[in-house]
Amino acid sequence: MKVLPPYSNLPDYCFWKRAVSSIEPTNLDPMISVPFQIEKNSKVATAGSCFAQHVARYLRNSGFNLLITEPAHPIMSEEEAVTFNYGTYTARFGNIYTVRQLLQLFKRAYGQFQPIENVWEGNEGHFIDPFRPQIQPNGFETLNEFKTDRDQHLCAVREAFETLDVFIFTLGLTECWEAIADGAVFPICPGVAGGEFDPSKYRFHNFNVSEVVSDSLEFVDLLRTVNPKSKIILTVSPVPLIATAENNQHVLVANTYSKSVLRVACQEVVSQRADITYFPSYEIITGNYSRGIYFAPDCRQIIESGVSHVMRIFLKHFSNVDISKDCPSNTFKSLSNDHDKDMQELVKVNCDEESIR
C-alpha cells in the first residue's frame, strides 16, 4: 500500500499559498478553533498594554458584559471619567506592560507583596502612585487621598480577579525598570512621569522567555486559587516599542526581540495550563501579507481598520458575533493627511510609553 507524503492530506490553512498569499489581506483569518466561547453575559476583564484598550472598547460597543469593578463617580462626566482613566480597563490600573507587573499587582492586592517604595512626589508637592503614574492627572493632592484611592483600587482588583469569567491580557513589553531593593516593577522609568531617577535605586531589566513563562504560570495559578473557573485569553500587542533602554541596540532589533519573547512565552503557557488560549492580534497586524496597511505613518500606531480586523476575527470565533458590516473598509491607497488624523484621533489611547521622548 502506497504511503502518501506527510503534507498530502493537510487542510488549506497549513499552506502559505492557499491560506495567506491568495487571500485578500483584509479578509485573512488565521484562527482555526477556540477552546471556549464568550457569552454576552460572561464577565470579561481586560488588562495589558495600550492595545488592550481597543479590545475593551470593541467588547463594550458590541454589547458584551465588560467587567468594571472601579467605576467613575456618578457626578463625573464621561469626558472626565476618561481623563481620570475610569473604564479604560476593568479596574483603574492603567497600562500593565509586563507579566511581572501583572503578577506583582495580584500579590499587592492580596497582601503578598509590599513594595518598599509605594509613593512618589510629583509637581507642587502632589503624590503619585508609582504603579499607576498617569491615572490621576497631576497626582493626588494629599497623602491621605492617595492612600484611600490606592486601597479602593486594590479592593477593585480583588473583586475583578474573583468574579471574572474571562480574562483577556495583552502582553506588550519585555523591558522594564525595577527597584533594586525589592524587584518592584514600574510601568515606566522613574523620573519620566513622576519620581526621580536614581541609578543607585533603579535598574533596567529585559525579561527572557523563561522569566515571562514562569511569571505567567505563577499568575495563572494564583488567579485560580481565588477563581478556579477563570478562562484566559493571551495576545501580544502589535504596537512596537516607542524606545529601548538596551545598550547599543537599535530599537527595531530590540522590538523584534521583545515581541518574539512574548509570542514564544504565550505558546509555552498555553501548552502548560488548561482553559488558556492565544489570539493572534500581533500576527494579523504585523504580518508581511498586510503590506503595512494597518500602521499609521509613524509605523507604530495601529489605525482603526487594523483594530477592526483584529476584533472582527476575535468576536467571530469567541462569540459567533459578526461585526463586519460595522467595520471600516481599507484599501492599499495612501491615507490622506486629514483622514489619517481622524483615524489616529479615533484610536487615541492612554499610554504611559508616550511620555518617553
Gist?
It is built from 10 helices and 9 strands. It is an alpha/beta fold.
Describe the structure.
This protein has 357 residues and is an alpha/beta fold. The protein has one domain (35-355). It is built from ten helices and nine strands. The chain has helices spanning 16-21, 52-61, 78-83, 99-109, 143-163, 209-226, 251-272, 281-286, 304-319, 337-346; strands at residues 44-48, 120-121, 127-128, 166-171, 175-179, 185-186, 202-206, 231-236, 276-278. The chain has a four-stranded parallel β-sheet, sandwiched between helices. The protein has a three-stranded antiparallel β-sheet with strand order 6-5-7. Helix 7 links the parallel strand 8 and strand 9 (276-278). Helix 2 packs across helix 9, helix 4 (99-109) packs across helix 5 (143-163) and helix 4 packs parallel to helix 6. The longest helix is centred in the last third of the chain and has 22 residues, at 251-272. It is globular.
Q: Tell me the span between the first and last alpha carbons.
A: 67 Å
What characterizes the major β-sheet?
A: 4 strands, parallel
Structural shape: globular
Radius of gyration: 21 Å
Helix percent band: 25-40%
The number of helical elements comes to 10
Extract low-pLDDT stretches. Answer: 328-347
- Could you tell me the mean pLDDT? 89
Strand content: 5-15%
With strands numbered from the N-terminus, the spatial order across the biggest sheet is 1-4-8-9
What is the number of domains?
1
String of helices and strands: HEHHHEEHEEEEHEHEHHH
Structure summary, number of beta strands: 9
User: Class by helix and strand content?
Assistant: alpha/beta
